[in-house]
Amino acid sequence: MLQKRTLLSLALASAFVAPAAHAEIAFDVIGGSEISFEGLLQADGNWFNNHIADLNGTAGINGKDSEFDLRRAELVFKGKGPGAFNWVVGYDAKSKKWLDVNAKYTVGANSNNFIQVGQYKQPHSLEELISTKNNDFIAKASITNAMGISRRLGIAAGMGDTNWSVVGSLFGKELTRNTTAGNGFGLRGTFAPINADGTVLHLGLSYIDRDAYGDSIRIRARPLADLATVYLADTGAINGVDRAKTTGLEGLFITGPFKVQAEYMMTKVKGITSARDFDTKGAYISGLWNVTGEGFGYKGGVPTTGLPDNPGKGMLQLGLRYDMLNLNDGNIVVTNNVPTAVGILGGEQKGWTLGANYYWRSNFKFSLNYNKITSSKFKARVGEVDDNPSTVTARAQIYW
Asked: For the whole model, what pTM was predicted?
């Protein structure tokens, strides 16, 4: 805990002494490649208003009603060139994991036409593809954490224009040792029938088919607080599984300083025998308002957040999100007044998030969220148990 607080103090101190320059740090031009350096530090605080489960009370955790930690410490080197080649090498010193480590070749002048090799975010989940430093809310939606797939080693190709895109990927394990594995493929297509004068209507469809590495899979999500150690919706480890197939639908509407975003995901798990098959689903819808009037961008089928129009005054955002995750695919049978589960009963979680983001100058962001959770999960010999906690989360961020 002392180490965590020391890291948090250093991160917060950095946020107040670092220069207010926005651009990445330019290093040198080597072999025709313009090399630059970027970084991201995020320090989080979570406060838990427990209902039944102690959200911070598993073995080895302090069991208090709050937790503070350095969430991310990302260090990224980028190279532009030679020619149509770009490359990136990123590492998160907090989680000790490799981030994007890849090379990309752009075909022609259109950046949507490319071939990419290495580790990169897979073409799946609109929220996952948005830059981490510009997350609308501190914790991603439950379906993104439970069913989304992020960075894997592989090869991808894409094509598109200003209002459409198609990306396909073949992937394997993560670059970091002893982390996620399992071969698979992914596809994502987007179409923006409206994309002009600050107004965007975006529709998207994605599909991920992956091997259940070790014939086992576990789907779960935290209660919208990244530092929580308890999962209210959790299938547990399901053995005897062959593959998991996730379909995602996404929609986005931008007009001036307003953005509405929604996603639905459905995962079908194929067991080695039909008795191990099960389905899960979930969705979220969110709205974000730039109170200070700034608009949003749109590139490559993903929304982007710009800098404050007036850096000295900053940019204020207010947001509201509703999300749900259903990990139940079975029923309860009562025998001699004793309830037992038939199938997979991982529970159901729903949540409201009210949030505010403040971007100050060109390098700083401060966020505050209130999350209200309702959940229900089967407990052996007891039946369904409702657990309805709330959490407050805060984040201080510096990036360059």
From this structure: 0.90
